[in-house]
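To whoever picks this up:

The nightly regression suite flagged Synaptojanin-2-binding protein as changed. Nothing in the input moved, so I suspect the structure step. Input below, exactly as stored in the fixture:
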Amino acid sequence: MNGSVHSSSSAVDIKLKRGPSGLGFNIVGGVDQQYVVNDSGIYVSKIKEDGAAGLDGRLQEGDKILAINGVVLEERTHKDAVELFRRAGEYVELRVLKKSSHHMNGPTGSQPDHDSSSPSSSSSSSSTLGILAVFAGAAAIFAFIYMRHLKKHF
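Regenerated output under the current build:
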């Protein structure tokens, strides 16, 4: 999605009712994790089809969330934005800048997903990969030592 920064976009208000699994979408961005070049905003990275946002149909992947229940997200860290979503209540009013053509740091969906509605999800994807890498490394070292040990005995 390479192109110019925000060509023809419009802000809309979307009110969602939190479902059993939260609001049903993931976010990326923040001043500490820029997702769009020269823009520290919070963006929708994934919509869960059967979640509140997916069933409503107005929120789309790539939309920029400007505010949650009137609280502006400008100049906030990713963690702060996630915390605002968690404390937002059953009904959540979003001010959203609809998706437009903009230059991102990577293709849509290539950044880690961060679920705005589940606790500790900010690091769940990277933690899982980290743990798998540690186990794979340990297995490789064990196999190497085991094979060297077998060679010495033959």
